[in-house]
Request: fold
Amino acid sequence: MAGSMTFAQWGNDLYTGRRSYPIVPRRRVWFSIVGVLGLASILILSTKGLVLGIDFRGGSEFTVNQATTTEQSVAIDAVDEVLPDDEPRVAVVGGDSVRVQTSQVEGDEEAAVVDALAAGYGVDPADVDASFVGPTWGAAVSERALWGVVVFVLLAAGFMAIYFRAWRMSVAGIVAMLCDLLISAGVYALIGWEVTPSTIIGFLTILGFSLYDKMVVFDKVRENTTGVLEQSRSTYSERANLAVNQTLVRSINTSVVALLPVAGILFLGALWLGAGTLRDLSLSLFVGIAVGAASSIFLATPLDVSLREREPKYREHTQRVLTERATLAASGGHDAELAAAAAGRAQLIPGHHQGTAAQPRRRRSGR
Reply:
C-alpha cells in the first residue's frame, strides 16, 4: 500500500540516518524515569522485602503428593494444629501437589505435621515427603550467590574497560546493569514470589544478556565516534545518538526473540500448567531481559555521553561545532544539511556509516 513503511525499511532509515529519534538528547528524561523506578524498587525492597526460599533461610519442607484438593487453607490449619506459633508458606506445585514450608522441625513434631497434612488432604502419610535445610546451609548459599554477583560485575567492568579502552563506557555499562538488577529485584519483591537458587541463576543470566546488548550498542558508538574530535560536522553526542538508532532494531529483535520462549515458560508452563519449579527462573528472566533491553537503549549510552561531556575537550568540541553551525545558518550557507542541523531539524552524519570520520565540506565564499 502506498505510503506504508515496512519494519525493514524503518530499520534501514534508522541505520542510514534518514530517520532519527532524539534518545541521547533527551537523556535527562530517561535518567529521571530510571531514578523513579530505582527509588520505587528500593522502597519496595526495604518495606516489603524479598521472600527468601527455604534454601536461604533454612527450615522444613513438606510436599503433599496427589492431594485431593489444593486449597492452601487446609495446609495452614493442619500446621496450626501442631505448630500454633508458626506461619507456614504454602504453594501449589505440579497441579495436584502442595508444598508447605515451616520452621525447622524434627522427630515427633515432623511426624505430627506429616499426619496432619495427610489427614487434611485425604492422602496416605507415605504420600507426604518431608525434608529440611539447616540455617548454616542457607547462609552458605546466600554468601555464594552474593559473591557470584560481585565477581560477575568486576569481571564485566574489567573486560569492558579493556575492550573499549575507555573507563566511561565501563562505568556506564556497569551502572546500567546494576539498575537492571535493582529494578528486576524490585518487581520480584512486588509480586512476592520466593527467591530460590533458580531466581539467582536467572538474575545472573539477565546480567549476561544485559552486558551483551550493551556491548553491541557501545561497539557501534565506538565505531561512529572514532576521530570525532578531529572534525567539526557533528558532536560526540550526535554520533552516539546515531549509533543508538542504528542498533535499535537489533536490540528490539534480540529482546523479542529472547522474551518469547521465556514468556512461554512463564505464562504457559508456570502459571497455566502449574509447573511451580519453573516460575522463579522464568519471572526473573522475563523482567530482567525486558529491563536490560530498555536500559541498553535509554540509559547506557546517554550515561556514557554525560560522562564524556564532563571533560573539557569534549565540551570545547561541542561548542565549536554548534558555533560553526549557527554561523553557517545565520550567513545562509549552501550546505543544507548543516543548516538543518543548526536549526535543530536533522542529526544526519553524511558519509559516516562505516566508521570513517566525515570531514566538513568547503564553504563557498559567496563573493
